[in-house]
TrEMBL record:
Keywords: FAD, Flavoprotein, NAD, Oxidoreductase
Record protein name field: NAD(P)/FAD-dependent oxidoreductase
Annotated organism of origin: Streptomyces lanatus
Gene3D superfamilies: 3.30.390.30, FAD/NAD(P)-binding domain
Family designation: Belongs to the class-I pyridine nucleotide-disulfide oxidoreductase family.
């Protein structure tokens, strides 16, 4: 007979990725009894199949590219990367896909951890079925937080399951380098994985349905990365869709809508994400299973007094750092409501308001060159009705960039609101620019006037000197 027990908590968190961990951390810090439920590994997608393993694969690639731009060092790094060593280091960053350390951390903050599949079973109630069939019924006095993340979406192609395609999970956890790899998609996962596996020795073909890469950034970002991937040896084909995929004697055969036939050892589909909300009991509370959950700025699900959706599940910004930001907001809001403290929804930058989701989402794409952006692109700003001006600058003309490496290529853009003379968005493309984006984020979030930015003096000679050059371009043109 299956064992069942019942326990009451202030907060129940569904999902123990970085988002769920941060919600639990904030509610526990506020003294709320908190339970966390996870069916896979504590640490979630980011720790084991996304941010950490992908960047562990990419870091040696980018370091080698930087070194090859420096005479005196370039001669020492002309050989290929040691793929086995890169993969072993990647494995270490994932803890070899064991979550003991992160479980220990959950225990250290005083949260109760339930390993198993959690489903809503009506208002404020979560049923957990453990790996051994044990059932736990958890009730929440104040809040249930859905932090279940998202999953990769595969296209509707006949027989696709039979060929066992890669998604982002397989691409970041593979234990050997495929001789030939087809990557389908033009977004972050597609461009980063094309960069990594090409450098590790795979012959990569990148198939992009649209006109270019990274279509959520300024157009020049995708153009520069496409050029760099082509120079590195990636066969980049835009305006190309997959018509069929089969596996013949172990070889993947791809037929495109252009009539082309491509043979490969593996195929990666990086073609979008869907919410992992299909089997968490949403139907028991009148919501559509498998849907993105609409929320207010305190991350509370629209129409509910107790249900929160934090991170990918609400579809606001599918980024780990943004999900963790939301988790801090949601944790504070749950704690405030639990203690009867009023939430000032009129305060756009208050402790309980996820304003950055609308105005200042930063992102870095770890390709070579890197692309980094925050806030609105020029097109987005114009579509929103702002009177704006784009100010561009060639990063290669900055002293710090030329010192960074010979043949440096890059570009910077700031989008200026001409009514208020503040920045609505900033984009950088070039080696090492990921470390620049936080300065731009502060400028956008802080709505720092152009007149004040003149007094934020960049250190010489660093790539940050581009800020001075952008301001001069704005003044002089």
């Amino acid at each position: 007979m299956t064992e069942t027990d019942s326990n009451a908590y202030d907060v129940v968190v569904l999902g123990a990725g970085p988002v769920g961990e941060n919600v639990a951390d904030r509610t526990r810090a506020a003294g709320l009894a908190t339970a966390v439920v996870e069916s896979e590994l504590v640490g979630g997608e980011c720790s084991y199949w996304a941010c950490m393993p992908s960047k562990a694969l990419l870091r040696p690639v980018l370091a080698q590219a930087d070194a090859r731009r420096l005479p005196g060092l370039s001669q020492a790094v002309q050989g290929p990367l040691d793929a086995a060593a890169v993969l072993a280091r990647r494995n270490a960053f994932t803890g070899d896909w064991h979550d003991d350390g992160q479980v220990e951390w959950l225990n250290s903050i005083g949260a109760d951890f339930y390993r198993g599949h959690g489903r809503l079973a009506g208002p404020r109630t979560v049923e957990v079925t453990g790996p051994d069939g044990t059932r736990h019924v958890l009730t929440a006095r104040h809040a249930v937080a859905v932090c279940t993340g998202s999953r990769a979406v595969l296209p509707d192609l006949p027989g696709l399951d039979e060929i066992k395609p890669w998604t982002s999970r397989e691409a970041t956890s593979a234990q050997s380098v495929p001789g030939r790899l087809v990557v389908v998609g033009g977004g972050v996962v597609a461009t980063e994985m094309a960069t990594a596996w090409q450098a590790l020795g795979s012959r990569v073909t990148l198939l992009v349905r649209g006109k270019g890469l990274l279509n959520r950034m300024e157009p020049f970002a995708g153009e520069m990365i496409a050029d760099a991937l082509t120079e590195a040896g990636v066969d980049v084909r835009t305006g190309t869709s997959v018509q069929s995929v089969t596996r013949e004697n172990g070889t993947v055969v791809v037929v495109t809508d252009q009539g082309g036939r491509i043979e490969a050892d593996e195929i990666l589909f990086a073609t979008g994400r869907a919410p992992r909300t299909d089997d968490i009991g949403l139907d028991t509370i009148g919501l559509e299973p498998g849907s993105w959950l609409a929320v207010d700025d305190s991350l509370r699900v629209t129409g509910s007094e107790w249900l929160y959706a934090v991170g990918d599940a609400n579809h606001r910004a599918l980024l780990t750092h943004q999900g963790k930001y939301q988790a801090r907001i949601a944790g504070a809001a749950i704690a405030a409501r639990a203690s009867g403290v009023p939430i000032l929804e009129s305060d756009p930058w208050g402790a309980h308001t996820a304003t950055a989701d609308h105005a200042a989402v930063p992102q870095v794409v770890f390709t070579d060159p890197e692309a980094a952006a925050v806030g609105l692109s020029l097109a987005e700003a114009e579509q929103a009705g702002h009177r704006v001006r784009a100010v561009d600058y060639d990063l290669a003309s900055v002293s710090g960039a030329s010192l960074y490496g010979d043949g440096y290529r890059g570009r910077a853009r700031m989008v200026v609101d001409l009514e208020r003379e503040i920045l609505l968005g900033v984009t950088f493309v070039g080696p090492g620019v990921g470390e620049l984006i936080h300065s731009a984020t502060i400028a956008v979030v802080g709505q720092v006037p152009i007149s004040r930015l003149w007094h934020a003096v960049p250190s010489y000679p660093t790539i940050s000197e581009v800020w001075l050059r952008l301001l001069e371009s704005y003044r002089d043109n």
